[in-house]
Specification:
heterodimer; A: 264 residues; mainly alpha; 11 helices; B: 300 residues; 12 helices
Chain lengths: 264, 300
């Protein structure tokens, strides 16, 4: 067997770069197509008739779409606040019962969403609620907690424990310490957590579709109904607006810890 | 203020109780209720259940009563399970094949490029599931990108949308980031000087890949398989939107029982069967992890 020449790059493996680029193209091609067609001026989703933003105007003045978007925003806002509050409180637990806690947190990641959806519907019925706004908020808060907690936890792990000891030596007691030391230091984590919880709630379709009622239909539930009827220019636009939300949230959560580090 | 034994700056343990109660109530509660419902009786009309114990729901998974009242083996639902397991398996394998080179490639870039590439993988991950699925409807449509290219090349049109293949493609697309992220996190800390050392000792590229990189990636591979296979098994959106009703997977069967079919006990029983498969899978992974001394954590 020949020995590879020494100049060989230890980081390069045959075919890996091209396979990686293929995977990236695969990830971006479909959403790129949708983005392009959102700026189509024609009456049909896929027949290009020149650049136009007229469908953005249509979507942003369509009351049916706006109403469901408002419902989604309300559910997401309430669930985000609750999930972040719970996540912060849950963090006090760090040592106690952490096995149970991490089990609970991983559960929504592996259990198929349809199972969680019908189980939640059955549970809601069992405790005497009916599908509607309250049911949506309760379910959304639950599956948002893990996502709100993740960045807060990683931020806490990255913090220097001495900060707290110094503050304690200077006479800070629990509440002032929380308000003046812990919370300000955790802010980037809390902001990321809130954003992730918000986008998770805004995006949820399967669970929401079982818990929505007339008058409390969320945007994804309404969108699903539209999509079932086939592609249309207004769906392209709604899709791009949701895509922009994803790009914004991912970028902000990516930049948030970074900026903190460079300013130190 | 008296001295406390807990670390400064943390709340007492009972502050976590509300969060634990909500999480436990709304995660475990529904699972308990679904198990209970699967043993109850279907009401004469409408959805919901009547509180009378029966195992009818499970029996009807495998048997149907014919008109003389005799039980007959009916493999229809088992076939739906088999189709779902097949699609989930193909999804997992293809995702692994696509994700491994991507994760390895990202892990070998400069730290700054790694950050940006991880961001590039996370954006589709955070994009609405319906948007990602809808985008494939545009690509596979009669007038979509693939058919246009195919026509321009003189290969004619193909019926791509509303086929089992489209549903399969949608699943692969949806779950790819779930495979890339855990793989990347198991590879990202690797000191590539070790690979260099292996070359100096006369190892080939493929040997290094097989004997050094692959064992290193193993926890990520297992975590990725769980994060892809399990949710894919119960997928619901892709078969409806891309499969166009021609593909019936367990997820759709479950949804139908709580929707038009109004057979909640049977839907609950199907959910319990899916959960049983999930628990069995987790137990196998735990057994494997113990035997090989690997730590597997299910996280992204």
């Amino acid at each position: 067997m020949n020995r590879p020449p020494r100049a060989l790059d230890p980081r390069a493996f045959p075919g890996v770069a091209s396979a990686a680029v293929f995977a990236l193209v695969f990830l971006y091609l479909p959403i790129a197509v949708t983005t392009v067609y959102a700026f189509n001026g024609g009456e049909q989703a896929l027949v290009w008739e020149g650049f136009s933003t007229r469908w953005f105007g249509y979507v942003l003045t369509n009351t049916a779409i706006l109403d469901t978007a408002v419902t989604s925003l309300q559910v997401a806002a309430v669930s985000t606040v609750l999930a972040v509050a719970f996540a912060l409180a849950a963090d006090a637990m760090r040592r106690r019962g952490s096995a149970l806690a991490s089990g609970l947190l991983a559960a929504p990641l592996v259990i198929p969403e349809i199972v969680l959806a019908v189980a939640t519907l059955a549970f809601i019925r069992m405790i005497g609620l009916t599908p509607g706004f309250t049911a949506l908020v309760l379910a959304h808060t639950t599956f948002c907690i893990p996502f709100a907690l993740m960045p807060v936890r990683s931020r806490l792990q990255a913090l220097d424990g001495h900060v707290f000891e110094v503050a304690a030596d200077l006479g800070a007691t629990t509440w002032p310490m929380l308000r003046r030391v812990t919370l300000p230091l955790l802010t980037p984590g809390i902001v990321s957590g809130a954003l992730l919880a918000f986008v998770i709630s805004m995006d949820d379709f399967i669970i929401s579709s079982f818990l929505s009622a007339a008058g409390s239909t969320t945007l994804p539930v309404y969108l699903f109904g539209l999509i079932r009827r086939g592609p249309s220019p207004s769906i392209n636009v709604v899709a791009v607006l949701l895509l922009v939300l994803a790009v914004l949230v991912s970028t902000v959560t990516y930049l948030a810890p970074r900026r903190k580090r460079t300013s130190r | 203020m008296r001295a406390t034994r807990r670390a400064p700056g943390t709340l007492p343990w009972f502050a976590s109780v509300p969060a634990l109660v909500v999480a436990a109530l709304f995660t475990i509660g529904p699972l308990v209720v679904v198990v209970a419902f699967s043993f109850m009786t279907r009401p004469p009309t409408g959805g919901g259940v009547v509180f009378r114990f029966t195992t009818d729901a499970y029996r009807s998974f495998l048997f149907t009563k014919d008109f003389t009242g005799q039980l007959r083996f009916n493999p229809t639902y088992l076939q739906v399970f088999a189709t779902s397991a097949m699609q989930a398996t193909v999804t997992t394998v293809v995702c692994l094949l696509l994700a491994f080179p991507l994760a390895l490639w990202i892990a070998t870039r400069s730290p700054r490029a790694q950050g940006l590439l991880v961001l590039a993988v996370t954006i589709p991950f955070w994009t609405n599931l319906l948007v990602r699925t809808y985008s494939w409807m545009l690509v596979l449509n009669e007038n979509g990108l693939i058919n246009r290219v195919s026509r321009a090349m003189g290969l004619g049109s193909h019926e791509l949308l509303y086929t089992p293949l489209a549903s399969q493609l949608g699943l692969i697309y949806t779950f790819l980031p779930f495979m890339v992220l855990p793989l990347y996190s198991s590879l990202s800390g690797f000191d590539f000087r070790l690979a260099e050392a292996a070359y100096d000792l006369g190892a080939h590229k493929l040997t290094v890949l097989r004997r050094v990189i692959l064992p290193l990636a193993r926890p990520g591979i297992v975590s990725g398989i769980l994060l892809v296979f399990m949710p894919a098994l119960g997928s619901y959106v892709q078969p409806v939107l891309l499969g166009g009703g021609k593909v019936l997977l367990i997820g759709n069967l479950v949804a139908a029982q709580f929707g038009d079919s109004r057979n909640w006990p049977f839907g609950a029983a199907l959910s319990v069967i899916i959960l049983a498969v999930l628990v069995a899978g987790l137990l196998v992974v735990r057994w494997w992890a113990r035997r090989t001394g690997t730590t597997v954590s299910i996280s992204l």
